[in-house]
């Protein structure tokens, strides 16, 4: 399996384009909620759901523009799109497109350092998250509609809930 090398990372935060400002992006992590399943000789866990879809974006640059864009995310969800493009060590191109419908839960200005551009870390929780990897659907989760496609599998269909 070839390693991926990220060449370009861009974001669009509620209409504010960011390209060179992105320091790092942490997409939502798919973590399953489980409940103990007892009653047999060997206990086990049953999957009962998915934890909150938390993400973070660390950016540098004009805090005023970022703050104004974030104002819309405070009381109601807004749209954040992050595109990651690059190539593998085998020379194959890849493109990951993250689409997050989310509220912002935290905005933290990072420590100021002489000679460096100031940065801010933005964190949020998604109510909708879609990830496509080089044209292939990986995740499509919508809390409001119950749509839950994780790693390409429709979990509601697997559970017999349509």
UniProtKB/TrEMBL annotation:
A Pfam family recorded for this sequence: Phage_tube
Name assigned to this protein: Phage tail protein
Species: Veronia pacifica
């Amino acid at each position: 399996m070839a390693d991926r090398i990220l060449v370009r990372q861009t974001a669009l935060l509620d209409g504010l384009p960011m390209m060179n400002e992105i320091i790092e992006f942490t997409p939502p992590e798919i973590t399953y909620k489980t409940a103990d399943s007892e009653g047999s000789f060997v206990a086990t866990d049953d999957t009962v759901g998915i934890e909150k879809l938390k993400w973070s974006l660390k950016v540098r640059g004009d805090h005023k523009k970022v703050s104004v864009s974030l104002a819309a995310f405070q009381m109601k969800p807004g749209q954040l799109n992050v595109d990651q493009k690059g190539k593998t060590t085998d020379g194959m191109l890849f493109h990951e497109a993250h689409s997050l419908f989310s509220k912002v839960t935290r905005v933290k200005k990072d420590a100021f350092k002489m000679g460096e551009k100031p940065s801010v870390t933005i964190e949020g929780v998604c109510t909708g998250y879609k990830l496509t990897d080089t044209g292939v659907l990986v995740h499509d989760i919508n809390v409001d509609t119950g749509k839950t496609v994780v790693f390409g599998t429709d979990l509601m269909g697997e559970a017999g809930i349509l």
